[in-house]
């Protein structure tokens, strides 16, 4: 009920009698409203949950309000709990906001319905006739049990109050695990968590807990969180665990976080004259900036006039040029040099103390080939895991290296191979265990009674294999004595070495030793040994040779007992493998890079030593000389220098006692050599006329087919190098992707990759429209290649030119 009143004051005809200096007849009006309520206090449940999980504490809040709706602080509030004809009363004290938090044990509720009542007083008011009675409003809430199939539970403890920005908060999580959910063989369980904010999932992670042998296991862990502007306005935390039997337990909570802003205020203490000089770093760019300053004080807001600031670089060059050019081509290079310096400046063989150093420096450039589908993307994933494992074993893994490497892992489908790589990566990044378990179950479903596996899906590379499970050995054991394929022998040797079967591994290695190719202290294997042409100064090994040799090295290093003679053989294999590495630490193709880096990492870990240092000197006959000091602190650093005398002979001298890997990298362009024909490739260019208006656009017609020894090729790539100064027309890409045989089109600055699942003897046609963006003279032909992705030596080449050049 409300009481309204209104007062009117009218001036007297004799102002002097009132003491007021108001003209006669003037009125002053005033009105007000008074709230009259019989309700002294009101209890309210704050956002209650309608369900409880038996065995998990139930948390809630009661707010006590006065008749105005304001919180009543430091007052008693009573919580009455009723279930199974039983009644319990708990007493709480409200905080400064009038809220009392409660935490109830649900184990004795026996999955029954529960009634909660919040009260200001325990006494029931008695009505008195002819007297105004005060009343109190109680809060009521009913709970139902949440039925779950698991006997395991987890509980997130809430953080009280409004959480500040930028401060680390530890969120406590308690859990109760049942052996029925875990299974007898489980020794570790992973709890995954993620936090959602305005940008979706902003934080994710996993906590791995070792499981004991008790039937019920209780424990806790904490999750550190620092709330920033990405979390606001209402971040939520979800924690869950997935058990081997398929059961799930989870909990979630929402946080109350203060408003977080990207722009933070800064305090600049003023000097005695009321001014302050503040140094500010500006971006390295030549541009104009607008500077605004404002201040806040108790008396108001101050805004200073806007000031312009012009920044510039002391020396820079603005160049307009094509992405790449070939020797002999001519184009107009437009370069504008801006030099505001008063003095002169200078513009500028590799050596590293670690076998894995070059690969570590180039984790994202290990393979210089397209990687547009799942199988190829694994080459960006698996080698990083092997490098991390090596650095971890040798205690060289720094936080900076781990952050860079795990960043590549998070950015990066072959079931067995992915299971293997993801399982090894779990130590460094979060990988959902469900993905691994689902893949293992899929493999188990496709295993035949003999222990072998049924073929499922289309595998682009027929030789690709993954780590074998124990039950598969029955299938392989029967085939060992009948195998004549050297590649299969190498893979089996590695498989039995992993399984701990020393005798079978040795039997296979003896057969492989008889087929080894040895020369100059180097050892390798090849399915098709051939003599290299004399002009091959640095011969390119076939990718299958690298992969095969790497499997043999892994077999030697993975045996249950590795002898000194095995390490001598391994050193010869490593000498050959390192000679095949490219300038980025990778190899020819995808799978050979994966297996070779795994083998090299395993060898490097076995031979690692913290002692020793070396001095490497590189000299030429014409005066060039450079020294590299390789120490323990610099072993992962790739030290390099530009060779100024090319061509020429270089002398490399090493002094000291340490492992040093040296490499000479020469980058140049030359027309590719023609090889044995396994593909057919014909290229035509089409242009209606050569008038100035038409020379900027023309069409390239490509016809390709496979004529090798197999029925079809593996996954094939049509690689189109673009003419200097040209680019692919956007519409041309869309037309290519509409062809059924084309799985993907990848466009780079100077090359176009067309992914084909396979090619057969039926000719396929591809049309590309090219547009000229920079005028060129003496334009050189560009190369078009079609090749087997996994055996790049199987290819066909053709060149094309702009018809009017």
Automatic annotation (TrEMBL):
GO cellular component, one term: extracellular space
Positions of the Alpha-2-macroglobulin bait region domain: 154-304
Database matches in InterPro entries: A-macroglobulin_rcpt-bd, A-macroglobulin_rcpt-bd_sf, A2M/Complement_sys, A2M_N_BRD, Alpha-macroglob_thiol-ester_cl, Alpha-macroglobulin_TED, Ig-like_fold, Ig_E-set
Intracellular or extracellular location(s): Secreted
Entries under PROSITE patterns matching the protein: ALPHA_2_MACROGLOBULIN
Residue span(s) of domain Alpha-macroglobulin receptor-binding: 713-800
Chain ranges of the Alpha-2-macroglobulin domain: 267-351
Pfam families linked: A2M, A2M_BRD, A2M_recep, MG4, TED_complement
Major place of residence: secreted
Single Gene Ontology MF annotation: serine-type endopeptidase inhibitor activity
Protein keywords: Disulfide bond, Protease inhibitor, Secreted, Serine protease inhibitor
Family the entry assigns: Belongs to the protease inhibitor I39 (alpha-2-macroglobulin) family.
This protein's name: Alpha-2-macroglobulin-like protein 1
């Amino acid at each position: 009920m409300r009481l309204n009143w209104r007062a009117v004051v009218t001036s007297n005809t004799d102002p002097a009698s009132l003491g007021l200096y108001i003209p006669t007849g003037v009125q002053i009006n005033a009105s007000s409203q008074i709230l009259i309520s019989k309700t002294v206090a009101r209890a309210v449940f704050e956002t209650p949950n309608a369900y409880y999980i038996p065995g998990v504490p139930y948390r809630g809040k009661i707010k006590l309000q006065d008749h105005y709706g304001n919180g009543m602080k430091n007052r008693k509030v009573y919580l009455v709990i009723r279930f199974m004809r039983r009644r319990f009363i708990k007493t709480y004290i409200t905080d400064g906001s009038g809220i009392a938090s409660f935490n109830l044990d649900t184990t004795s509720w026996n999955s029954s319905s529960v009634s909660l009542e919040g009260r200001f007083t325990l006494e029931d008011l008695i009505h008195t006739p002819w007297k105004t009675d005060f009343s109190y409003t109680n809060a009521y809430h009913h709970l139902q049990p949440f039925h779950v199939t698991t006997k395991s539970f987890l509980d997130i403890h809430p953080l009280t109050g409004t959480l500040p920005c930028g401060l680390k908060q530890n969120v406590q999580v308690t859990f109760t695990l049942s052996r029925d959910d875990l299974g007898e063989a489980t020794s570790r369980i992973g709890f995954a968590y993620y936090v959602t904010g305005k940008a979706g999932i902003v934080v994710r992670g996993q906590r791995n807990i070792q499981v004991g042998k008790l039937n019920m296991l209780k424990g806790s862990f904490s999750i550190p969180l620092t709330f920033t502007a990405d979390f606001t306005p209402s971040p939520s935390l979800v924690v869950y665990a997935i058990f081997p039997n398929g059961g799930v337990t989870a909990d979630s909570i929402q946080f109350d976080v203060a408003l977080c802003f990207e722009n933070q205020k800064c305090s600049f203490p003023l000097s005695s004259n009321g001014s302050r000089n503040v140094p500010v770093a500006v971006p390295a760019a030549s541009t104009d900036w607008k500077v605004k300053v404002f201040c806040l004080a108790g008396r108001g807001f101050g805004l200073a006039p806007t000031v312009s600031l012009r920044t510039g670089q002391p020396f820079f060059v603005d160049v307009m040029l094509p992405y790449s050019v070939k020797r002999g081509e001519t184009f107009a290079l437009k370069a504008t040099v801006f030099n505001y310096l008063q003095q002169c400046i200078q513009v500028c063989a590799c050596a590293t103390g670690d076998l894995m150093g070059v690969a570590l420096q180039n984790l994202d450039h290990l393979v210089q080939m397209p990687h547009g589908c799942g199988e190829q993307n694994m080459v960006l994933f698996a080698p990083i895991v092997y490098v991390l494992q090596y650095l971890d074993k040798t205690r060289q893994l720094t936080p900076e290296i781990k952050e860079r490497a795990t960043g590549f892992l998070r950015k990066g489908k072959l079931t067995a191979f992915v299971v293997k790589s993801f399982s090894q990566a779990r130590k460094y990044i979060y990988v959902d265990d469900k993905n691994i378990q689902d893949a293992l179950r899929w493999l188990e479903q496709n295993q035949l009674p003999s222990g072998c596996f049924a073929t499922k899906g289309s595998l682009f590379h027929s030789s690709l294999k993954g780590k074998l499970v124990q039950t598969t050995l029955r299938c392989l054991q029967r085939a060992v004595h009948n195998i004549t394929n050297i590649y299969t022998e190498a893979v089996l040797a590695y498989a039995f070495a992993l399984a701990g079967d020393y005798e079978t591994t040795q039997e296979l290695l003896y057969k492989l030793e008889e087929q080894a190719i040895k020369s100059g202290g180097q050892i390798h294997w090849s399915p098709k040994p051939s003599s290299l042409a004399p002009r091959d100064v640095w011969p390119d090994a076939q990718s299958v040779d690298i992969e095969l040799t790497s499997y043999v090295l892994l077999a030697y290093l993975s045996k249950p007992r590795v002898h000194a003679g095995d390490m001598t053989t391994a050193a010869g294999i490593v000498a050959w493998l390192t000679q095949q590495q490219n300038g980025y630490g990778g190899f020819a193709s995808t799978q050979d890079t994966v297996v070779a880096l795994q083998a090299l990492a395993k060898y490097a870990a076995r031979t690692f030593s913290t002692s020793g240092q070396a001095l490497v000197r590189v000299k030429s006959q014409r005066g060039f000389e450079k020294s590299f000091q390789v120490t323990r602190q610099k072993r992962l650093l790739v030290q390099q220098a530009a060779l100024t005398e090319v061509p020429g002979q270089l002398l490399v001298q090493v002094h000291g006692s340490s492992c040093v890997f040296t490499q000479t990298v020469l980058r140049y362009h030359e027309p590719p050599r023609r090889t044995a024909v396994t593909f057919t490739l014909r290229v035509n260019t089409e242009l209606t006329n050569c008038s100035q208006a038409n020379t900027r656009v023309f069409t390239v017609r490509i016809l390709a087919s496979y004529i090798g020894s197999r029925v079809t090729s593996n996954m094939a790539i049509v690689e189109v190098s673009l003419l200097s100064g040209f680019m692919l027309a956007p519409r041309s890409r869309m037309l290519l992707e509409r062809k059924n045989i084309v799985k993907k089109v990848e466009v780079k600055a100077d090359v176009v990759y067309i992914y084909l699942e396979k090619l057969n003897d039926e000719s396929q046609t591809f049309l590309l429209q090219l547009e000229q963006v920079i005028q060129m003279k003496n334009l050189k032909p560009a190369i078009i290649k079609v090749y087997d992705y996994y055996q790049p030596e199987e290819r066909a080449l053709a060149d094309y030119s702009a018809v009017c050049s």
